[in-house]
């Protein structure tokens, strides 16, 4: 993927840092004439288990505009760029010591506020060099004006296609940057559970995910054979239900695509909402990697992502595959949700009230067709079973 962020501002993260890395950054920020502003904080993660340096840097030279993240990483590492450190998760193995660098998608002030913010860390060390410029060369740049328009349009709910028409030059040159900035600032979807009560199983699961520390091995499989018990609603609204945790929600695709989507610093809760069609082809290898807190991304910008072990929950309509070549026995936790009699009665009443007259006229034939197909499928299964029995003889 082409690196195409039209500015010379970067954010960076370094896990398992050493005192030499910290001292080099302090010297680099003071001695390099191209550094207009640099801020870095010694952070430890939400539970104190992931020490890392979190920072941002702004270069006053436009020559850095086209630099790739790998080049900026080497520049920040300085003499430490060739150092390899022991892998804490694999004794005897070593990891290359490098920063994860990305182009800044928000403003420099937002990035600076994020480093060592009080809501994230208490008493972490911070090094700050330079001042955040209010203007560049006495006037606003086209990029800053475009960034402001995109953020305003996203917050107002303007369709992204209309935003592209507003800024055709940036749509041609920096479409990925525009899309990421737009998605970051668009309003969150309304919380479904603000107007609908939680089922008991949803409330119990939300309480567990919010209050309990993730088990280092267990993967939760929520299996609803019948369907329509609120699995997808839970997944889509989980961030509202558990506001104090970072929640990542996705549908299962191939492992390579999913690895590129996983946040670099991981997440507290990882939810996979699996449609019926793909449940026999789940990426179990990817699910196990996420549970281990270590994912290898081989798509776009290849990298390794290490993060704290999250809760992993998979929502399904059939039981997961089982076997030594799939997952270890101790990985499985099968949750089969059900409704209380009161919840079941209320759901049936709600379905009757919400049934549109236009749809209702077709339901009798639809139900008859479903029954015909169920009988047909049962007959096919019996035929296959009989054929296997004859073959075995």
From TrEMBL:
The keyword Nucleotide-binding applies. Keywords: Covalent protein-DNA linkage, DNA replication, DNA-binding, Endonuclease, Hydrolase, Metal-binding, Nuclease, Nucleotide-binding, Nucleotidyltransferase, Transferase. Residues 371-386 have a biased composition (Basic and acidic residues). The keyword Metal-binding applies. PROSITE patterns: CRESS_DNA_REP (PS52020). InterPro entries: CRESS_DNA_REP. Residues 4-132 form the CRESS-DNA virus Rep endonuclease domain. GO terms for molecular function: DNA binding; endonuclease activity; hydrolase activity; metal ion binding; nucleotide binding; nucleotidyltransferase activity. GO terms for biological process: DNA replication. Residues 371-393 are annotated as: Disordered. This is CRESS-DNA virus Rep endonuclease domain-containing protein. It comes from Seminavis robusta.
